[in-house]
Amino acid sequence: MGETEQKGRTVWDMVVMVMSSGRRTITIILALTVVTSSITGAGEVTGLTFDGWGKGPDGSGCKADIDASRLPVASRDKFDIALVCGYPVPTDIMKDTHISVSGLYTPQNLVHAHVRFSKSMMDSSEDLQYLNPKPPSGTRVILNDTIWFKAVLLPKNTDTANIQKLSDVIAVGGKLASEWPTAGGATRVIIVP
């Protein structure tokens, strides 16, 4: 197995095992490719990366395991960690107000963060304006939304209720982690009004 660095991407791949017994030769190729990709390199600005992420067990929120083991000591004294998630929308993601923001977590090597979907995020998931043509009133529609996840550093004692969009993180002196993982989101059935 090898590791290569490619423009902010860490790629692990190639495991081949050959077993031979008498006349039989079995070749097992274990193809494992893990790619960590980001805008400027995984977690180098904040020291935060994701170990796992997805929707909450009841489907009503986001959860993530955030690796903060590389968060510098100076940052641990100044910042807390929060999880932000949202649905990809055809607007500027930094200005999108249909997001959910967790409470603050004290920096530890591994932070288990979770947040219930905000009302604005739930309302945006039921926005049918992008369906063309719009289904007739009374039609049942199944929504399966993708969710993006962002780990952020916020100055200690920041009121997360004041974080309405990702640009607010920067405005209060916070930092955005470089990684933007996504996952299949909540599946819901709605009735077209």
Explain how this protein is built.
- With about 190 residues, this protein is mainly beta.
- It has two domains: about 1-35, no CATH class; about 45-190, Immunoglobulin-like.
- It has three helices and 13 strands; from the N terminus they run E-E-E-E-E-E-E-H-E-E-E-H-E-H-E-E.
- Strands 8, 9, 11, 12 and 13 form a five-stranded antiparallel beta sheet that branches.
- The N and C termini lie far apart (about 55 Å).
Element order: H for helix, E for strand:
EEEEEEEHEEEHEHEE
Largest sheet, described in full? 5 strands, antiparallel
Instruction: Give the number of DSSP strands.
Output: 13
Low-pLDDT windows of residues: 1-44
Overall body shape: elongated
CATH topology of the largest domain: Immunoglobulin-like
Supply the helix-strand structural class.
mainly beta
Can you tell me the CATH architecture of the largest domain?
Sandwich
Distance between the termini: 54 Å
The tally of structural domains comes to 2
Mean pLDDT: 75
CATH level 1 name of the largest domain: Mainly Beta
DSSP helical segment count? 3
Radius of gyration: 21 Å
Percentage of helical residues?
Answer: under 10%
Strand percentage: over 45%
